[in-house]
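dumping this here before i forget
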Amino acid sequence: MKCPYCGGETKVLESRHVDEGAAIRRRRECLACGRRFTTMERAEEAPLVVIKKDGRREAFDRNKILSGVLRACEKRPVRMEDVERLVAEVEKEVRSTLEREVPSKLIGELVMERLRALDGVAYVRFASVYREFKDVHEFREQLEKLLGSR
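structure:
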């Protein structure tokens, strides 16, 4: 691999499996300039299309899931590694359906199922946006369901 700084040849210093073996993180060093950088190697997967609520189709983007979960977990005692594991689990389950097109509803439900187990407040925050609560009564219903299941 070429160095992103000078274009020189590089060598691998260290390799680690990440995302439960779904990717490899490599630490590299340039033989010409000596700078170090990290690369991620992931198997190229078949394109996955998400069917939105309004019927639009767009490419699957795990970063959208990550940003939504991070927003829901803001100022909560949730570790970043737990958030990343949640996103990896959702992506793995979506891809394991072997369908090329998946409804956004499936993705949202998978995220909520995992958030519910991870952090109740984050779950309610995510659900309130995802389910588009119209008023405080819908919000209360969701809270009562959450409290009733515990």
